[in-house]
Every structure is written in structure tokens, then in C-alpha cells.
Amino acid sequence: MITFSRLRFALAALATGLLTACASPIVTQVSNFNQWPSDATGSSFTFIHPPSSRTQPPPELELATYQAYAQQELEKLGLRKAAPGQTARLLVELGWVTQPQERSYREPVYDDRLVFYPPYRNAAGQLFPGYWAPSRFGPIYLGDRIVPYTVQFNQINLRILDTRGGPAGQPRAVFESHAVYEGQAALPTMAPYLVRAVFDGFPGQNGQVRRVNFDRETGAVIRK
Question: Could you check whether the bond before residue 167 is cis, i.e. omega within 30 degrees of 0?
């Protein structure tokens, strides 16, 4: 049986949770690896298709959308998109992974059923009837239960290859990054944030894993 006080507490907790969710930042985790060339400023770049199977090529329009996000960030760095037919120095490969993943958490279970208090007399002999009420000792802890839930795992992978400095005809990787978001939003919603997270502080410290948080209302990177 759910008591009125417990119902009121549950509604208050729900309201607080909704307000917290609205105010909480968008959290991404980024892994960067780089051997960025010092003379790359002003270089041209072009996009190359990520590896794919013949039976499942990357969706063209979705790929073009995410590449456009990356192009904006690359141009902010002083790089320029190669004109059609022009040979670019840098080759940019962008791919992604998106899939639901199962998670779980432990939730405490309590017995808060009402207990019966029998009739009694006070010192003056006045009789009071029995009644049902919450236990004076509070809810009884019964143990924990496992509660499953599903999150959406979204990851943007971006790699930049340099056609200079490597063996002839073999571009060398100079930047690799993986940006991850886990939550309820689908990849098309999160892709702009993930791409921006990849380029935040570019090229960054080699081998660094860090969080990049965004304000949910303004979309700005949260700087502490």
C-alpha cells in the first residue's frame, strides 16, 4: 500500500529530477591521439569515405551532414577545403557508432506497509480505538533489487591523414579522436556536440582522455 506521505515524496522527487535533468549539462568523453605537423596551418583538406562493408555503406546524407559539422571546425583552425579536382594535403575520415546498450543500478527496497496499533486506555481510563498507521520505527530495509535501463551509445570517430612525410603513396595518421555520449538522445541530435568536442582544444595532448561539457540551454562549452 502506498501512503499519502510516500506519494507526496515521490511526486516531489520526480519534479526535482525533471528540473535537474533540464539543468544538467551535456557530457561527452573525448580521447585524442596526435602527431600534428607544425606546418599544417593553411593546408587544404578533403573528406574520404570511412571503411564500410558492401552490404552496409554509410548513409550518404547523414555522412554529408556530419562532415559539414567537421568542415566548420576545420576551417576555424585555419585549414581550407580543397576545391573540386584539387589534390588536398590532409585527408579527413569521419565515421560513427550508435547503438542501444543495457545498463542497471541497484535500488534499495523497503517495506512501508501500515501496521495495526491495538486499542488502549490511557492513565485516566479513557479508551482509544485501534488504528492503522506507518510503523513508529520507519520502513524496514529488505535488500536491493537490480533495475535495468537502456541508454543510447553514440560515438563519433574522426581521423586526419597527412599525405606528406610518410612513405610514397601512404598517408600517415596525424590526428585520431573518439568522442562519446551516453544518454537518451539519438546521434543526429548529439552529432554537432560530439564533433565540436573532438576539436575542442585541438590538437590537444597526445593520449589524453577528458570530458567536454556543453550547456544544455546555450550549447556553449562549459569552462571551469
Answer: no
